[in-house]
Amino acid sequence: MPHLFASRRAALLLPAALLAGLLTAACSSAPGTRSAAARPAVIRGHVDHPQSPAVTLVHYRDLITYQYDSLRLPLTADGGFQLRLDTLTRPIELLLAHNQRQLTLFVEPGDSLHLRFDGAEPEQTLRFTGRGAGINTYLAELDRRGMASGLLGTPAGQRIGHADTLRRRATAFRWQQQRLLDSVAARLPLSPAARQFARFGIDYEWGNVQLDYPGFYRYAAKKELPGVDTAYYAFIRQLRLPNDSALHVDGYRSYLSSYLMYRQGGGRANEPANTAAQRRWDQRYLAVLDQTLGRSRSRDEAVAHWLAEAMDFRQPGLVAPLVESFRHSSRDTSLSGLISRRFAQKLKLAPGQSAPAFALADTSGRTVALSSFRGRVVYLDFWATWCGPCLQEMKAAPPLYRAYAGRPDVAFVAVSLDHDAPAWRRWVRRNAHPGVTYLHAPGMETPVAKDYQINGIPSYWLIGPDGRIVDNAPPRPSQLPALQQVIDKARQLGGPTVVRR
Question: Which Pfam family is one of those matched by this entry (predicted)?
Fold first, then answer.
């Protein structure tokens, strides 16, 4: 099961749109922070040797479904830019982008932050002055030293073969981060909120890597990490759960997800999303979540994340009672309202609804429309060459394609969401299967991705001969027997081809 709380630093930056919402969304109250009287914050910057005519600031207004606002700021003739947030009531994180490069900013009410960087080498040249410089200097230095992605993103995090080695390296990395924070604090002021933000990030990342790595090792090495026993998990007692004051920190959100999965005893049941086995797994997971988090804000956010994901992999009839239960159990009406609205949107793509039309280019540049497959069952796959799980499913797919070779009533359509079209074409040239139509849509922000509400990939759909959705969460190619069953049912049905499972 993917982490409930994805990292914003790892997010792909989508093209900017000039949205005034950035100015207002940044000013609402948020979990883990105390709202105070609004005070303006000002960000002023200068880009030496600009590589594009603007910078873009991105603010995630919703950490459940990762809805964001972005604001494009054209550079002045001398490379300057400025943004004033007039009614900021809490600390926020922003992503600043220039020429496809991203930097993280931490901004508090009352800040007057000045930054400067070279457009050709932003990470190596970024410097801060003014109020707020301390925490942002720390974040920039983490990035410069290759530490921003955590221990596993460093050379010391590679090729760990024993639990004792992992524990030592995780602890050493933790103290390395703490020493860096102390050295920055010795020369630049850090506010209490900034210091807490940094400390929470350090401590929960330390716990997160120790919870996650045994699973990574098991997947890669096909065996258990030596040295993992009950005593190994003693570090858990040192980290507070729940900790609602840390909900705005990526490290805490990742640790919370890892801990819940540890308590559950592993990843998602290896069953299609709508089976009884998967439903039993889900019920156990929700029980663990309630036992662990009680009636906390962390509990409400974790359930909201789980439901947002479940909508992508469950049929609506199975999700509806869970959404209704959350509406009554959540203490935060904004969260329950968000989930209810999202579910209402998902119902537009429920089985029996018309599949959104599209017309996309294939590798030769020819436009292929979904309507050209009318009269056939279509197994539709949204994927990308940079998506590891997508490629794993692609490797598992040839038996599926062979099973329906020569069957004119079944079509396989793979829509790549790669921004990098040449990378997509290279992959298709090397790996294409003759039974598949390969199409391209450059990114999650394209109309087809929005129409199908693609929030993560791979994403699979089964469309009937009449152009209506049969299944909005069919089994994957690696689940061949179950997938063949739903495809064959769709082939046999007449009229609206809705498969019930």
Answer: Redoxin
**Rounded Cα–Cα distance for residues 140 and 189 (Å):** 15
413: Cα within 13 Å, side-chain hemisphere: 26
Helices 316-329 and 333-347 cross at an angle (nearest 10°) of 170
Alpha-carbon span 128 to 25, nearest angstrom:
25
Q: How many CB atoms lie within 10 A of CB 482?
A: 18
User: Which of 237, 264, 291 delimits the end of a domain?
Assistant: 264
If asked whether residues 334 and 429 sit together in one domain, one would say: no
Of 347, 374, 408, the domain-final residue? 347
Q: What is residue 478's predicted lDDT score, i.e. its pLDDT?
A: 93
CATH number at residue 471: 3.40.30.10
What backbone phi and psi angles, to 5 degrees, belong to 103?
Answer: -130, 150
The answer to whether 90 and 33 have CB atoms below 8 angstroms apart is yes
- Band of pLDDT at residue 129, cut at 50, 70 and 90: very high
Q: How far apart are the C-alpha atoms of 346 and 363, rounded to whole Å?
A: 31
Owning domain of residue 406:
359-492
Could you please report the per-residue DSSP string of 398-437? Answer: HHHHHHTTT-TTEEEEEEE--S-HHHHHHHHHHH--TTEE
Q: Is 245 helix (H, G, I), strand (E, B) or coil?
A: helix
Place of tokens 């990378």: 423
| C-alpha distance from residue 99 to each of 8, 119, 165, 390 (Å) | 19, 8, 39, 27
pLDDT higher than 60, residue 235: yes
More confidently predicted of 407 and 499: 407
Name the pLDDT band for 24 (thresholds 50, 70, 90). Answer: very low
Assess if residue 397 is contained within a domain. Answer: yes
The residue among 96, 95, 93, 117 whose CA lies nearest residue 107 is 93
Confidence band of 149 (pLDDT split at 50, 70, 90): confident
Beta sheet of 92-98, edge-to-edge order: 67-74, 54-62, 92-98, 101-107
* Nearest CA-CA partner of 383 in 436, 308, 440, 431: 440
CB atoms within 10 A of CB 396: 14
The total number of residues shown for the chain amounts to 501
Residues 194 and 248 both lie in one domain: yes
Report the sign of the C-alpha dihedral through residues 161, 164, 167, 170, in that order.
negative
Q: Could you tell me if 81 and 38 are in contact, meaning their C-beta atoms sit under 8 angstroms apart?
A: no
Cβ count near 66 (within 10 Å): 15
Q: What is the pLDDT of residues 385-402, one digit of tens each?
A: 988 889 999 999 999 999
Say whether 67 sits in a helix, a strand or coil: strand
Average pLDDT for residues 262-273, to the nearest whole number?
A: 63
